[in-house]
Amino acid sequence: MGVPSRKKITQYEHAPVGSGNTRKIVLGYARWEEYNDIGKVVHLKRSDGFEVWYGYDENGNQTYYRNNRGDESWTDYDDWGNAIHSLSNNGYESWTRYDDHSQAIHHKDNAGRESRYDRNSRGWIVIKP
Q1: Which of 35, 102, 110, 112 has its CA 20 to 30 A from that of 9?
Q2: Which residues contact 117 (CB under 8 A, 6 or more apart)?
Q3: What is the pLDDT of residues 45-71, one digit of tens each?
Q4: What is the pTM assigned to this prediction?
């Protein structure tokens, strides 16, 4: 017996080219987005009052997140675009290391959790008994 699914209907209404704004109607609320010059969302506002602001580095990686509920986070990237450090205003902090193929090999956080990933020649994570 399966779990009943809810059909999600999304309608798009695009603003004129170059205006940088799009309005979307999703499950009964309106959503407005403002984009930067490379097409990344920098400000999102919903009709229920929720708002989010995003910041990006010169490579287009999301480096900053803030919403109007007080959540805020920052992310640092290496030269290959891998997220190597994240910090949140709630005190959570994490670090990730990657191999030469940009595959995550080690992750740890300030709560003491730590994971190491072994990979096979195809880059798949190997689970050892």
Answers
A1: 35
A2: 103, 104, 105, 106, 107, 125
A3: 988 899 999 999 999 999 999 999 999
A4: 0.73
Rounded to whole angstroms, the Cα distance separating 109 from 95 reads 6
Instruction: Name the residue among 52, 111, 103 with its Cα closest to residue 86.
Output: 111
Residue with tokens 């994240």: 86
Which amino acid, one-letter code, is at 84?
A: I
* Of 14, 18, 17, 56, the residue nearest 31 (C-alpha): 14
Q: Are the C-beta atoms of 98 and 92 separated by less than 8 Å?
A: no
C-alpha closest to that of 71 among 54, 96, 59, 56: 54
Query: Which tens digit of pLDDT belongs to each residue from 10-42?
Result: 455 555 445 556 555 556 678 888 989 888 999
